Amino acid sequence: MTEQTQATDPKKPVPSQTENKPDIIRVEGMNKWYGDFHVLKDLNLNVRQGERIVICGPSGSGKSTFIRCINRLEEHQQGKIIVDNIELTDDIRNIDTVRREVGMVFQHFNLFPHLTVLENCCLSPIWVRKTPRKAAEEAAMEYLERVKIPDQANKFPGQLSGGQQQRVAIARALCMKPKIMLFDEPTSALDPEMIKEVLDVMIELAGSGMTMICVTHEMGFAKTVADRVIFMDGGEIVEEAPPHEFFTNPQEPRTQKFLEQIL
Ligand code: ADP
Ligand code: MG
Question: How far apart are CA 67 and CA 84, in angstroms?
Fold first, then answer.
């Protein structure tokens, strides 16, 4: 719960100016249960192309479950989720298509430990997108340069710091040329001195026009890049507002209490 991104304000991306853009994600009346436990309650969310959404809320409020539903790592039982005009249903072809368009970055990096950084980055482009190996490697090197670690390409994940591993995870996701990037607490497992190097990469990505949904408690990041901040509690979207309103004038008592605890 830090203001790590304050120092990066000069890099603040231009406002996303997405008012006239079409929705790339639509969530309508979505409910999910784990057995008897009603984990997500009547969620509604429209995200326009290029928008940057930050989701925050207490542990256990359903943030991870929600974004995992958006690329069908979890399935919902009621309501609709439509991603890039494809409704997520049991149809495996739709799921495969959506997974190609939606990149995800996890708290614990989830790199393949037995593959080098370069191999981690090339695996899906080669096997899923059928990109020829040489082209995949060239593209991967460009993304590794973008996250500022081309010199680590032939190392294994275990030889890298946490911040470097997370930047590899971001590069790996970008190698699939996704239309949407989901981040689930990407800096929570990092030592404080490594948080900024990952947030800087995310800020740069936001500036490039990527549609992003980020679960994070980095409120400095939220203020710098978010178009909207969403507060979840108990499986519900309790409040949603642009960052300046969200932080200065939260409407709901649950949001106020949460902000008092973290700011
Ligand atoms: P958050 O990311 O906001 O911390 P989660 O989405 O991880 O919250 O979890 C929301 C709730 O669902 C929590 O109470 C958690 O214990 C529960 N939960 C998460 N995953 C499962 C699962 N696979 N089976 C049953 N309950 C789960
Ligand atoms: Mg979580």
Answer: 15
ipTM over 0.95: yes
* Number of Cβ atoms within 10 Å of the Cβ of 15: 10
- Dist. CA 155 → ligand 2 center (Å): 29
Straight-line distance from the first to the last Cα atom of the chain, in angstroms, rounded to the nearest whole number: 7
Ligand whose nearest atom lies closest to the CA of 59: 1
Q: Report the atom number in ligand 1 closest to the C-alpha of 65.
A: 6
Ligand 1 pocket member 248 (CB < 6 A)? no
Q: Is residue 235 within 6 Å of ligand 1 at its C-beta?
A: no
Nearest C-alpha to atom 23 of ligand 1 is from which residue? 34
Smallest CA separation from ligand 1 atom 13, residue: 60
CA-to-CA distance for 8 and 200, rounded, in angstroms?
Answer: 7
Each residue's pLDDT tens digit, 8-51: 455 666 678 888 899 999 999 999 999 999 999 999 999 999 99
Single pTM value for the model: 0.94
CB of 62 closer than 6 angstroms to any ligand 1 atom: yes
CB 67 within 8 A of CB 184: yes
Helices 162-174 and 192-207 pack at an angle, to 10 degrees, of 20
DSSP 3-state helix, strand, coil percentages of the chain (rounded to 5)? Answer: 40, 25, 35
